[in-house]
Specification:
Layout: E1 18-27, H1 31-34, E2 39-50, E3 53-59, E4 72-82, E5 84-90, H2 104-117, H3 122-138, E6 141-147, H4 152-165, E7 168-172, E8 174-175, H5 188-202, E9 208-214, H6 222-234, E10 239-244, H7 248-257, H8 264-270, E11 278-282, H9 288-297, E12 300-303, H10 305-310, E13 332-335, H11 347-360, H12 367-381, E14 399-402, H13 408-414, H14 420-430, E15 436-441, E16 444-447
Parallel strand pairs: 1-4, 5-6, 6-7, 7-9, 8-9, 9-10, 10-11, 11-12, 12-13
Antiparallel strand pairs: 1-2, 2-3, 4-14, 14-15, 15-16
Length: 458
């Protein structure tokens, strides 16, 4: 921990020479593995920010002398955490949350595909990107891994909007060459070329990364999955995102399309798509063999509880992903909203759904572990833990401020809370966007938007 805040530097308008006060909460690791040692809870805490990054963190009474004249933003009893990280969400589906369907495949045909076709218009995609990112920030999400549509220009507009905000965002053009409307299909060659162009334009620019993004094995044939594997091999710094084992109907169809593969995971494995930068959404119905293979490859399974509930996909079993489970190895675990199959942009609300799903499976998701997953855990899954996920000097000042008394019901509930776990559980189960007092990205408060400079985070 640094012991001083240099008195010279950029202006406060650029996120420097600013002190944020509040109850600091972050995690050094998974509480399921490290116990209480994983949790840092400083009731009267302070963060000193400079140049968009944290330069000092600790108890306010220990704030270095040369930081004390900096402009302050005092959040009182509110919780100040690292900004939430969403590792699976669909940019073009923000309008179709709560659009019902008879399961996943019917929902795709009736709602997702027609909505995504609208993104052929660059102006529509540009406007949608602004709305989408504002919604993320309104719910405390400051970094994400995002599916765009099949259209190259739509991904361009999303990257550009994220760059203007200084956000850490990974995204990719969706790859689909079959079993989708003609307006949403590419082919193995054109999809690969577009992905290469997008990677060249955006990967490593600011805080942006590219993710090769085959939607799933039903909508990408062998040639396209092979091309995605080749892309990943030639761009080892890129991410890979897709869907896996979401519904029984989907699994049966994949088995019909790839009869020579052992199981669904084996389809992706044969095309070189498993690896430490690969994230597989859902994994509701994985076998022990599949979990072991994903763990061996260092891949991540992304739990999407509100989507699984809403589409009736099944109840994810968190048990095998808990350190105390013993037995066979399990892949890394992340938790995501999965808008628009998911029903809330709020990661705390999503954690509440994960908690309820665990209860129904006879498991337990401790609140501290849940918030670890939404911050450092998800950052690790995206390979972004060096920059975000903790309130530590050197990391970006991506912050979310949560008010545990944001509503009358929460205020009444908070009066009974005796521990941090009590407070976090109430936010998970009773919270929505109203609990988000502020969202900061790179040392600037971006939600709620401010009318003009205030000397701290504007």
């Amino acid at each position: 921990m640094t012991t001083s805040c240099p008195s010279s530097g950029p202006s406060a308008r650029n996120g420097a020479d600013c002190v944020v006060l509040g109850r600091l909460i972050d995690f050094a690791g998974d509480p399921a593995e490290l116990g209480r040692a994983a949790v840092r809870d400083i009731a009267d805490g302070a963060l000193a920010l400079r140049g968009g990054r944290i330069v000092w963190a600790g108890a306010a009474r220990e704030l270095p002398v040369d930081c004390r004249r900096a402009p302050r933003r005092d959040y009182g009893r509110c919780l100040v955490l690292p900004g939430f990280v969403d590792p699976h969400i669909h940019f073009p589906q923000y309008r179709i949350a709560a659009a019902g369907g008879r399961g996943l495949l019917d929902w795709l045909d009736r709602f997702a595909f027609p909505e995504e076709a609208r993104y052929a218009e660059a102006d529509h995609a540009a406007a949608a990107a602004e709305t989408f990112l504002d919604l993320l920030l309104a719910h405390g999400t400051t970094a994400a891994l995002v599916f765009s549509t099949v259209h190259e220009e739509a991904a361009d507009r999303l990257f550009a909007a994220a760059e203007r905000r200084g956000m850490a965002l990974a995204a990719g053009k969706t790859l689909m060459d079959r079993n989708a409307p003609a307006a949403l299909r590419d082919d193995a060659e054109s999809g690969l070329r577009a992905s290469q162009r997008l990677h060249a334009r955006w990967h490593g620019r600011g805080r942006l990364r590219y993710a090769v993004s085959p939607r799933f094995a039903i909508t990408s044939g062998a040639a396209q999955l092979a091309a995605a594997g080749e892309f990943l091999e030639s761009h080892p710094d890129a991410l890979m995102q897709t869907h896996l084992s979401e519904t029984q109907e989907e699994i049966a169809e994949v088995g019909r399309l790839f009869p020579d593969c052992i199981d669904y995971t084996d389809v992706y494995d044969r095309f070189g798509l498993l690896g430490p930068n690969s994230l597989f959404a859902h994994g509701v119905h994985l076998s022990a063999r599949e979990r072991e293979r994903l763990a061996e490859a260092g891949s991540t399974v992304v739990h999407c509880p509100t989507s699984n509930e809403f589409l009736g996909s099944g109840l994810f079993d968190i048990g095998p992903y808990s350190p105390e489970a013993g037995g066979a190895a399990a892949p890394r675990l992340a938790v995501a909203t999965d808008i628009g199959g998911g029903t809330s942009y709020s990661l705390p609300a999503t954690l509440g759904a994960a908690y309820r799903t665990a209860q129904l499976r006879g498991r337990r998701l401790a609140p501290e572990r849940a918030f670890y997953l939404a911050t450092l855990g998800n950052a690790r899954a995206l390979g972004m833990e060096d920059g975000i996920g903790r309130l530590e000097p050197g990391r970006y000042a991506d912050l979310v401020v949560l008010d545990p008394r944001a509503t009358p019901l929460l205020a009444a509930r908070d009066a009974l809370s005796e521990t941090l776990a009590d407070t976090l559980l109430a936010l998970m189960v009773l919270g929505d966007d109203r609990i988000v007092r502020a969202s900061w990205v790179s040392g600037r408060q971006l939600h709620p938007k401010q009318a003009g400079p205030t000397g701290c985070g504007s």
